[in-house]
Amino acid sequence: PGLVDYYQRAKMALRALDATSVHRLCSSQVIVSLQTAVKELIENSLDAGATRIDICLRNYGSEVIEVSDNGTGVEPSNFEGLTTRHGTSKLRDFSDLTTVSTLGFRGEALSSLCALSQLSLMTRHKSQTHATKIEFDNEGKIVKQTHIAREVGTTVTLEKVFYSLPVRHREFLNNLKKEYGKLTQILQGYCLISVGVRITCTHQSSHKVRKQTVLSNGPSQSVKDNIACVFGAKEVGHLAELEQRTVYDLDALESEGMAVMEIPETWPFRLSGYISKCERGCGRASPDRQYYYINQRPVDLAKLSKTVNDVYHLFNKQRFPVIVMDIETERDRVDVNLTPDKREVVIQQEKLLLLLVKYSLLKLFEKNNHTAVPTSSQQTLIRVDDGVEKGVSSGMLWKRFASSRDKRIWGVFLIEEFSLSHAVLKQFESIYT
Hints:
Blueprint: H1 2-11, H2 19-30, H3 34-47, E1 52-58, E2 64-69, H4 109-116, E3 118-124, E4 131-136, E5 142-148, E6 153-159, H5 166-174, H6 176-193, E7 198-204, E8 212-216, H7 223-231, H8 233-237, E9 239-241, H9 250-255, E10 270-276, E11 290-294, E12 297-299, H10 302-315, E13 323-328, E14 334-335, E15 346-347, H11 350-367, E16 381-385, E17 388-392, H12 395-403, H13 407-418, H14 422-432
Parallel strand pairs: 1-7, 11-13
Antiparallel strand pairs: 1-2, 2-6, 3-4, 3-6, 4-5, 7-8, 9-10, 10-13, 11-12, 14-15, 16-17
Helix pairs in contact: 2-4, 3-6, 6-7, 10-11
């Protein structure tokens, strides 16, 4: 038996997979869920300069997904290349990645969607007098073209998404409403940041039922207007505008383990957006309305999110803030080519960004006369009182510090446990002794 097994393994020589198998394997990694499918189509529309994007879902997207825009459309000479894998007009070579300004650039979306669904496309370029409807097979090849009437722009229709992947398709259908909820969250992110672009999403439970509007940002001219359209005018009243504060506080730098020489003359980040006030009735019971952007690109920033929530909990420990924050920086300081969905990014000097956000939020809340409140954890809370920075912990801790015979030992304990600087500790000694 051993010789037979060896003989069978020897027959399985290394060989390249056929093109169809490679296409299906890679496509299933690019489009992994309902929200990534719709996200790719929205980004295509935004990159095409659309000012109106309409998303229509039938039966939560399990039957039909349709994304229509009034962008530039596609020239007939590019029809064949639309669904070519890695066919893109955004990059000429890899070096262009450091300066790319479009949301999409990998050229994988339509090719992958062809492999996972039944895809058809209607488009009209401004140079054409008529539109063309194009139907593709699962390999991205054109099977039919028809001349139709349509305004300038593009409509992409997906039917039976994931039907070619039986396991994923069953899982998708079993969790349809959950996936639909995640899609709504993604759509809200694009609605909030897209100024001057009207994005509308409608849902139709079946072809016999009227469409219902799920969300829309309206023809707004600012992020604040978008927030009012998506979450209501009442939510806007609970928000404060972010104010960037440059960090030159030596104690703040020391507490973050940074030297003054690490601070640049010109900060490489510019913050804008809105965050919940710390007053009663503001914020949320969960962090479900937190949106972060790098140069208006929606991204997931776990460390930044933790920093924002930690600072907010110093002033309102019962709630999570609603936040819409855009971070503007040079494009060559961010690597967006980490994952196919481009939501995971690497930021050069991320530590500086976290310090800038933390310091700016602290000063914003202090300016609005909010006072940091003690917590049960061993977190030292810093507030500004009469121009003197003081540490606030449990009253018993400070009584023991004040009454201790050996304040040097207590000082070492406070520095190690709470990351206090020696300068701040000396202020504590003058206050509490």
